[in-house]
Amino acid sequence: MIALSDAQLDRYARHIVLREIGGEGQRRLLGATVAIIGTGGIGSPAIQYLAAAGLGTLRVIDDGRVTLDNLQRQILFETGDVGRSKTDVAAGAVGRLNPDVRFDARRERLGSGNVAALLDGADVVLDGSDNFATRLIVSDHATAARIPLVSAAIGQFQAQIGTFRGWEEGKPCYRCFVGDAFDAEDCDTCSELGVLGAMAGIAGSFAALEAIRALVGFGPDPAGKLHIFDGLLPAMRSIRIVKDPACKGCGSAC
After folding, report:
1. How far is residue 222's CA from residue 206's CA, in Å, rounded to a whole number?
2. Residues 33-50: tens digit of each pLDDT
3. DSSP H helix total and E strand total for the chain
4. pTM above 0.70, yes or no
5. Do residues 159 and 202 lie in contact, with contact meaning Cβ atoms separated by under 8 Å?
6. What is the Cα–Cα distance from 140 to 158, expressed in whole angstroms?
7. CATH class of this structure's domain 13-240
8. CA torsion, ordered 81, 83, 85, 88, to nearest 10 deg
9. Of 229, 81, 72, which Cα lies nearest the Cα of 155?
10. What gap in Å lies between CA 125 and CA 137, rounded to an integer?
11. Which residues are part of the catalytic machinery?
């Protein structure tokens, strides 16, 4: 069991006084590994809040470099970071924010050939990637490896966040939600349709909350629910996703 130092008792005091977290929950966070797919609009705030919360290891997977058009919503980065590796910038930001956190940079593009190595040993996966191909690879592996998956997505004025544990009876995986979705060559992108930067903050913060919930365990079980936030109204609704018995990721035939 991890013993909390006097400095940690002070740093995480606002967590420790919450009866749903307490000292035991904080020790779980300090001993956990969260794999984060992407340092973009969702990953940026998620990384910051998880680092501040005292996650023991943040494994951040991204092979990109900072571009000027990232800065409107990817709040980890500054103007002077343009051209730099995103994981390098993120590592520096986490180091300044919380020396308790180990930053495990994986400067790679996730695919079917390396997903097992990239996610091995993770206690939770937080997926903020921007395409179905990556999301389905992550979902299928997380289901097979029995790793809770927090999936978050944004577009224009909408955010969607869900937690998936598809290996459990009655619980869907992400593939149950989207099926065999694919990224059409002529599909609209954020660069064409736009996205409000603050929506990324909402989605990333919500995803960080759900990752912490998955590790500590508090409140009702969110697995199998999709939370949809509409920033235009504003309003939030939750829908329950039904497990697909024919799903290629978690169905009875798997």
Report:
1. 12
2. 999 999 999 999 999 999
3. 10, 8
4. yes
5. yes
6. 25
7. alpha beta
8. -30
9. 229
10. 12
11. 190
